[in-house]
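Handout, section B. The chain below has 124 residues.
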Amino acid sequence: MREIKILFVEDDIVLNMATCVAMEDKGINVKCVYSGPAAIEAITRLEYLDALLTDIDLGKGPDGFDVARYARRLYPGLPVVFVSGTMGLHHAANGVDGSVFVAKPFHPAQLMRALDQLIHHDAA
């Protein structure tokens, strides 16, 4: 059985590093990137992907909604968790079907609960 692989996209370097370390400390295989273009490249290059956690506002280039739509084209039904401190109202209209939204500031455990909910829901 292969390990679950998660892509985390967050342009805030401190938040990205802290969240990735917290996930790695829990034994999660996470690839961390800092921008929309880097996320698109990672999704294209990864051998497989089990879930996407992405900020919505990623600065210049593709936003988190664009990243999620791209990921879903390559991985239909991929569990997606969006995070944002300002874009929560846009999630319902622009997020991918079946995704979850977590407001910033968040604790990494909140992301893990949302992800666990999506992964186990898909497995059921």
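Note. The chain has five helices and five strands. Compare this with the example in section A.
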